[in-house]
Amino acid sequence: MRKTTLILPVLVVAIVVVLSSIFVVDEREKALVLQFGQIKAVKEEPGLAFKIPFIQEVVYYDDRILSLDTQTIEVTPSDDRRLVVDAFARYRIADVVQFRQAVGTGGIRVAEDRLSGILNAQIREVLGADQVTSDRILSKDRGGLMIRIRDSARVQARSLGLDVVDVRLKQTNLPQRNLEATFERMKAERQREAADEIARGNEAAQRVRALADRTVVETLSVADRDANVIRGEADAERNRIFADAYGADPEFFAFYRSLQAYETSLKGNNSTMVMTPDSQFFEYFKNELSTNGSVTLPEPVARVVAPDAPTPETPEDPAPVSPAPTDPAPEPVAPAVSPVAPEADTPPADN
Q1: What is the pLDDT of residues 117-144, one digit of tens each?
Q2: Which candidate, 257, 266, 268, 276, places its Cα nearest to that of 335?
Q3: Distance between CA atoms of residues 301 and 308, nearest Å
């Protein structure tokens, strides 16, 4: 009974000592064995490991790639256009011994604060260097600038036992106070480009209109010239036909022209002409042209008044005329027209 009472405490103490001396290293972690704050061992391989119980302690550090978002900062490129830059980095603990010596008991929080300061300094240095403009930062050269920031930050982060895997610029914007001015400038540039395009369009339209007007004028000129040529040839042909007709029978041609003059002068229902009875205008109304001793005028009939001419009681050659309708006071009429042959028109000159 007394042996059992002694064995049980010894077993419990042994089990506690054994459990305190064993620790497990995960494949995602690295471990440091510390004794009174001094590093005694580094465990980077996953599995079981041993330490001195109650004297040594184990500190674990993440062996995975970690992420760090930096604070938004303002940078001034070489063209003096201020930019607001927001970046992030990927890093991992490369040397746990150096990391422990650099940050002490602060761990990841202190390391990220120092790494954030390194990144901000390198971002300002690279983006504010000579020949680095805001347009270059926003162009395809952005990738090369991020590589320069990563390489510079990696060199300085080695003193912390960190390895900077990658650095990326998430956002690169103008400060809020400069956005409105930038937008107005962009709007003015677009309006200027639009005005230039409109001016070039109007110029092209004027050229097209001028060419069209010139084509219209040339076409009309050619058409008028051809029309005048055709009209002149037709007038010449008409005059030739009239001349041939006049030459074939002058007396009949004179009679035909007189009939045309009668038709033109005695048009209407109350035509009145005042002239002497022996006027040449009524040459073909005389008795010589009448076979039965009288001349009958077709309707409408014109009244001929001969002023101060005595009416013979028994005319030698009576020529009865149908009575004309009663008209108001006689109106003067142009003098008699004698039948003459038409004159040949001169065809117009070609344009």
Answers
A1: 999 999 998 988 878 888 888 888 888 8
A2: 276
A3: 22
